[in-house]
Specification:
The protein is α/β, with parallel strands linked by helices. It has helices spanning about 15-20, 55-70, 95-110, 140-155, 170-180, 200-205, 225-240, 255-260, 275-285, 290-305, 315-325; strands spanning about 30-35, 45, 55, 75-80, 115-120, 130-135, 135, 160-165, 185-195, 245, 265-270, 310. It has a domain at about 25-245: TIM Barrel (Alpha-Beta Barrel). It is about 40% helix and about 20% strand. It binds zinc ion.
Length: about 325
């Protein structure tokens, strides 16, 4: 039998494979999530996320040095406040924990891209992402507060605000608010396609943001749906989003591909806490090769069409990329 086409020729040696490979993961693609808490001398590991910590601002300042030398260029901040109330006032307090972390970071590392996650759930006593009345999460009154939070973070130095609440109309409201206050150059990264996912479990422990009643299915997306995601992304584009996001990542690569094919804005995907915890737990048990599985997973996200990835593995990946270069 005569075989003329031999795809294996392109796989014969590492040099050939490197020559023809199609997808790259760069350190500039990575966004590192950080949890900041009130207090001093706090560096507390999150039990379900080994290797990820709560930092008070003094210990975070130390950690910032590691981030800076790692080569990672973007950080997304999540705040865990001491005080929570019905209206999530910590989210839009100019002296809030994230606002102070932003000012500190920008004063020390002005070139580091600072992204502020914008939501109320870490700051509300009921743990929902918006104002609650009679057991319902109110949409329109929540927009005012989200925009206030975005403006407060922009004033504190955020290069990008990233609303994660899934209220209708929040991107347009936020864009107008930022523009009206002279922050027309502050980018909006929209959590456009955010599914009501069980993969967020460890994050809720990390951010102490589990809802006190009910769940988030009246605002986060039903994971059985695909067309709905296109509607959400189209609205965010129309309302002025600069970057779109699909969250979670690994179980939703079809959506990363769909959104990347249909929309021309840069696309981010969030490899969420549950994805991290699963890989970490298996690695700690010696069941998988952590580095290989993580690099393969992240490259799959790029191959599906993500331009950037929010991942708790960012600092490890940065180190692995250097080792491999
Ligand atoms: Zn939220």
């Amino acid at each position: 039998m005569e075989i003329l086409r031999r795809p294996r020729r392109l796989r014969a040696t590492k040099a050939i494979r490197d020559l023809v490979h199609e997808t790259d993961l760069h350190v500039s693609d990575l966004i590192y999530p950080v949890f900041v808490v009130e207090g001093e001398h706090i560096k507390e590991e999150i039990p379900s996320m080994p290797g990820i910590f709560h930092y008070s601002l003094d210990t975070f300042q130390e950690h910032l040095k590691e981030i800076a030398v790692s080569g990672v260029k973007s950080v997304i901040f999540f705040g865990v406040p001491d005080h929570k109330d019905e209206v999530g006032s910590g989210a839009y307090d100019d002296e809030g924990i994230v606002q102070r972390a932003l000012r500190l970071t920008k004063s020390l590392y002005p070139e580091l891209i600072c992204i502020a996650d914008i939501c109320l759930c870490e700051y509300t006593s009921h743990g929902h992402c918006g104002l609650v009345k009679d057991g319902c999460v109110l949409n329109d009154p929540t927009l005012e507060l989200l925009s206030k939070a975005a403006l407060s973070c922009a004033r504190a130095g955020a290069d990008i605000v990233a609303p994660s609440d899934m209220m209708d109309g929040r991107i347009g409201h936020m864009r107008r608010t930022l523009d009206g206050a002279g922050f027309e150059n502050t980018l909006i990264m929209a959590y456009s396609i955010k599914y009501a996912s069980a993969f967020y479990g460890p994050f809720r422990e990390a951010a102490d943001s589990a809802p006190a009643f009910g769940d988030r299915r009246s605002y986060q997306m039903d994971w059985r749906n695909k067309k709905e995601a296109i509607v959400e992304a189209a609205l965010d584009v129309e309302e002025g989003a600069d970057i779109l996001m699909v969250k979670p990542a690994l179980a939703y690569l079809d959506m990363v591909k769909t959104i990347s094919d249909r929309f021309d804005l840069p696309l981010c995907t969030y490899s969420v806490s549950g994805e991290y915890s699963m890989m970490k737990a298996a690695a700690l048990n010696g069941w998988i090769n952590e580095k290989s599985v993580v690099m393969e997973s992240m490259t799959a996200m790029k191959r599906a069409g993500a331009k950037m990835i929010i991942t708790y593995y960012a600092l490890d990946i940065a180190r692995w990329l250097i080792e491999e270069a």
